[in-house]
Fold these 3 entries.
Entry 1:
Amino acid sequence: MTAVSVQGSGMTRFGRHPDRTPRDLVEEAVAAALDDAGLEPRDVDAVVVGNAVDGLMTGQESVRGQVVLRGTGIRGVPVVNTENACASGAVAAHLGWQSIVAGLYRRVLVVGYEKLVHPDREKAFRAFDASMDLAEMHALHPSPPADRTIFMDHYADRSDLDEDVLAEIAAKNHTHGALNPLAQHRTPLGAADVLASRPIVGPLRLRMCAPMGDGAAAVVLSSTPGPVHIDASVMTSGRGDDASMPTAVSRAAASAYERAGLGPDDLDLVELHDATAVGELELYAQLQLCDPGSEDALVKGGTTRLGGARPVNTSGGLLARGHPIGATGVAQLVELHTQLTGRAGARQVDGARIAMAQNLGGIVGTDVACAVVHVLGGPS
C-alpha cells in the first residue's frame, strides 16, 4: 500500500469575517499550504473540497470547489466536492488519502471551508440543524428555538452532567486557544469564567459551546515520503436506530488503532470534535482515552491539558479555535501537522510523535451520521 505523507498545511484565522468571501478565505489557506509544502499550483494533481452548508448560506451549490478554487491558479485537475455535515473536511481528507493509496495521484490538495457569519443568525442555526433527519427533528422539536441550534439541546439532554467538569474542559480549551494565533477566541479562561458566561440550555454555558465563525484550512497530501505520515484514515457511518451496535466514533477509533498498529497509550496528543464541552466529555471513552465512567477523573487529573500525559485540543478545539463546519476536520490535521513538525510555539507538545484527529458530523437516530479518525505519525 502506498504511504501517504502530509507535505504542507495552512489555514486562515477562524472567526467572524463579514467582509470576506468563501473564495477569499480558500485562496489564503491554499496559498499557505502550498507555500508550506514548497509547491506551486501546477504541482497539484487533484483537489478534494469539503463544505457543509454553503448552499444554504450563500446559495452556491453543485460546483462549490471549482468556484472557490478559481483564483488559486490550480487549473484543469479533478476537483471532488464532499458534503457530510461537520465531518465534510475530514471526509475530504479521507478521500484524498484513498486516491493516493490507490495510486491515482501523487499530490492531492485537501481543502475545507465554511462561511457562517450572516446578519440573520437564525439562518446559520437552521443550516446546522439540516445535518439531522429533518422529519425526526421536527417531530421532536416542532418549534426550534431561534437563539441556538437544536444540536445544543441534544448535547444537554443528560441528567448526570457535572457543571464543574464541563467548565474545566471548556477552560482547558480556551486556555490552549489563547496560545494559537489562528484561533477565533484567544482569551484564556478559568472554570469560574466559563460558569459565569451566559446560560444556553441545560448545564451548557456560552463558553462551553463552539462559536459561529468563518474560515478555511488546507493540507497537501503526497506519495513522497515525508516527516509526517498518515498511519490510518478511517470513515464510518452511524448505527441509526440500532442501539446494539457500537457508535460510529467507537468503530472508527478501534479500526484506526488496528490499522496503525498502536493503541491509545501511544498517542501524544488528540484533536477531537468538541462542539460542546459535553461532546468532548462523551468522546473520551469512545476514543479509548479512558474507561467508560472515568471521564470526570480524566479531566480532574489534568491528563488532557498541555503538560499532561495526553493533551486534547491543543489548538483550542472547536470551543476556542472555532468551528466553521466544513473547515474543522482539515484544521485538525493542520494542528497535528504543526505539532508533529515542532512548530506549535507556546502550545507545542514536547516530543510529539503520534497524534489522532477525530471529526464527526450530523445526527441520525441514536448516533452521529458520520465519523472520521486519522492517526498521524511524525519523525522518530
Note: The longest strand covers residues 354-364.
Entry 2:
Amino acid sequence: MGSTPQRSRRRRWSALLGAAALAVTAGGALATPAAAASVDVDYPTHCVPPPIAGIPPIDGTTTGKITVDNATPKVGDTVTVTYTVVKPAASNPTDLALPADIMTPTGKVTLGGAQTGSVTVAGPKKNDPVPGKGPFPSFSMTGTFTVTAPGAITLSPGDYNIHTSYILELDTPCTVTNPPAPVSETVTASADPPANTRAISLGSASGAPGAAVTVTGSDFTPGATVTLAGRSGAAQTADTATVTADAQGRFSGSLVVGDRTTTGVVAYEGSAWNAEKGAGPVAYVVVDDTPVPDGSQKLTTTVKAGTLSMSQAGDAVQLSAVDFGTGGASTGTLKTVTVKDFRGGPAGWSLTGKVSDFTGPGAKIPAGKLSWTPACATKAGSPSTCRAGSAGVVGSAGATLASAPDATLTGGEFTADAQLSLDVPAFTPPGTYTGVLTLTLT
C-alpha cells in the first residue's frame, strides 16, 4: 500500500505533462526572424496527447511561418529551411509551472511547385520556463533540402511533434487537418549551367603595334566559330579574328593587335562576349615603339594595383531594451562598413558576418535569434556595383552582408549597413547581454 500514493502522484504528473505537451504542439516553435518573402499562415491542426494524459484530441488553429536562408538558389544548391509555429492554439491548461529546456520539436515542411516532397526539420531541446496558465514559448525546427529543379518551389507548414522530457518521455503529434497548409514561402531556383572550362593561352605576352599574336584555345564547343578579340579594360577593341574549333574543341589562330590601348585578349562563342561561353582575358601588352620626334620627350606612367580592404565607423552597437515578461525585438543599426576594392582585376568580393551567442547574467540568447536587413551603396564612378545580402538570420553559421560579382574589370568604393533585430525570449533574466558580430571580407 506504501507505493500506491507514489503511483498516484506519478499518474497526476503524467496527466499534467500530457496536457502541457498538447498545448505546446497546438502552437509553438522558436521564433526566427523571417526573410522578406515569407508570411505567417493559419491552418487547422489536430493534436493527439499521450494516452497517459487522459485528454481528448484538440483541434485548433496554428499560425506558422517558413523561412529560408536563400530564396534564389541554383539547381544543386542546399537550402536551409526553418519551420516556426508563431502562435500556439492553446496555453498551459494547468496551474503547474514547467521548467526550461524540456521540449524537443520535430516536423515536416511540404514542397510544391517545381519540386515536390517534404523536408524533415528538428529543433533543439530548448524552451523558456512556462508559468501555470501562461502562454507557451515558441520552438523552431530547421532542416535542409537540395534543389533538383529550376522554377518556383513553394514551402508550406506540415505535421509536427513535440517530445517532452520531464518525469516521463512523452510525444504529442499534431497533423495538418486539410493538407497542404497555405504556402508561407516561395523560392525561385535557377538552372545551374555546367562549369565553363574554356581556356586560352597566347604565343607571346607583348608585341609591337600591328604585330600578330598566336591564340590557342581548348574545351570550346566542337565545330563552333570562335571570335578572338583585343580588350581595353572592360571594352572590346576593333582588333578581331575568327577561328573554328576542331572536333575536340581546340583551336589555334592569329590575332593582329593594332590598338595601343589593348590590355588583354579574349575568345568567345557567339556574336558578343559572354563569360559563360568565353575565356580570358589573358594579359597582353602593346609595346609602343613609335620613335620620339626631335625636340620631344616620351612620357610614361604606371597605374599600380592596390588592395581589398574594409573599415568600420565604430565597433559597438547598443540595441534597444526590451521588458522582462514581454521580450521581443531588440533593434539597432550596424556601424557603417566601408569596402575599398583597389585591386583592378576581374575578381569580385564578399562581405559576410557571423555572431556569437549573447551571454548575460547566468543565461544566454542564442546567436540564431539575431537577424539583419542589409543595404549597400556604390560610390559614383566605381566599375563594380555592390549587392546587399538577403534579409534573415545571421546566427553562428553566418550570412552575407554585401558582395560584388566577378567581372572583366572590377573595383570601387562601397558602404554596407544593416538594420539589426535580436529576438529576445519573453522571460530572459534581466541584465545586459553581449554578443560579438565578426565581419569577414574575401
Note: DSSP finds one helix and 30 strands in the chain.
Entry 3:
Amino acid sequence: MPAYFAYYRVSTQKQGASGLGLEAQQAAVVSFLKGGQPQGEYVEVESGKKNQRPQLLAAMAAVRAAGGVLLIAKLDRLSRNASFILTLRDAGVDFVCCDMPDANTLTVGLFAVLAQHERETISKRTKDALVAKKARGAVLGTPANLTDAARQQSLLVRRARIQQDPGLRQTAAFISSRRAQGVSFRQLAGELNALGFTAPRGGTFNQKQVQRLLDHATANLPIGTN
C-alpha cells in the first residue's frame, strides 16, 4: 500500500475548532484505508474560493518526498475552482478522492467543472435574492442609524469572539506587538500570511482585516462591560 497523506479543508475557524466537517472527512479517510491511518494529516481552514493553501502545499511536498498519494475525502473539499483542480492534477502529484476512488483524469476534470458551476450557481442565486429583497424596500448591510446600544452590543460580541478563540487571541497579540514596533498594517498582513495565520473568516489577511481585528480586540469599552 502506498503512503497516504490526508488533506482536509474546513471553511471556517469555528468548524476547525469544533470538528464540524473535519470529523466527517477523517471518518471517510479511515473508511477508505479500511481502518488504517494516513501517514500524515494536513488541515486547511479556508474558503473554497481561494487558492492560497499553505497546508496543501505542505501535503504535496510530503507526498512527493515519500512517493505517496494525496488522499482527499471529497473532491469539493479540495476546491470548487476548476482551473485549480486541473492544475493540481497536472502537477505530477498522485491524489485520490474517497468519494470517487476510481476516477480517472477525464472524470476528475468533469467533476471539477461541475463543482465550479455549482459554486457559481449558488452565488448567482444569492445575489438575485438580495436584489429582490432590496426591491421590496429592505435595507441591506449595516444601517447607519444603529443606536449606540446596538453598536456597543455588536462590539462586545466581536471582542468576546476574539477572547474566546485562542487562535484569534494569538493573532491579535502578534498584531498589537508588531504595531508597537511601528510595523504598518500592510506589512503586517504579509507577515501574518507568511507565518500561516488565518483571517477570522478564513483565507489570507489583507490590510483592512488586520486593522479591523486589532480595533475589535483593543476597543475601549465602558467600565463593567468586560
Note: The chain is about 55% helix and 10% strand.
